[in-house]
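## retry 2 of 3
previous attempt timed out at serialization; input unchanged, resubmitting
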Amino acid sequence: MQYEIKGGAFPVVVCQLASGEQMITEKGSMVWMSPNMEMSTSGGGLGKMFSRAFSGESMFQNIYTARGAGMITFGSSFPGKIIPVSIAPGREMIVQKNAFLASESSVQLSIHFNKKAGAGFFGGEGFILQRLSGSGVAFVEIDGELVEYDLAPEQQLIVDTGNVAGFAPTVSIDIRQVPGIKNKLLGGEGLFHTVLTGPGKVWLQTMPIANVAGAIRPFIPTGND
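## retry succeeded, writing output
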């Protein structure tokens, strides 16, 4: 598979496939393709279907197979970037549930449960995560711009949960309360922050879609207006 990422604020990734090569997606993010791409929809078994449904994704995957040399293009759903990730044993990636766009069929997508109880009960988007494993290229959506950090062992970063796009499996994630009653009630930063602890790579996104939706909600007319 060869690929090229095109576009600006709304990027697409154009994938050129040899005969028999496959791509998978869970979001119906295909935007155009050559006529010889064959589509099939699969659940991958009840266990995987319920796991994906719990993580907020579709219970089914769309699989596109090239019958002869073919082309397929996947598009982002929000202004930002499409990032290619080379997945291999020992080079897995944990991403937030809406970040996965598409991948080669040799990449495996599974739910990733956080082991920390705090993150489990209070983490919101930060608790339900997805693990990219196997071997091959995956494409990840970033809302807004991408900022990367390589954390040293025990080095910590405190982040608003929605800004966490992904991180290496060596990074641990937990939830910390915003200190002080006045800060909680009047600070406008919510009740909890995500704490990322190294070692490992961390991906942050500057414009999570949930934050944008919250910012424009007061300006949307309601039925009573």
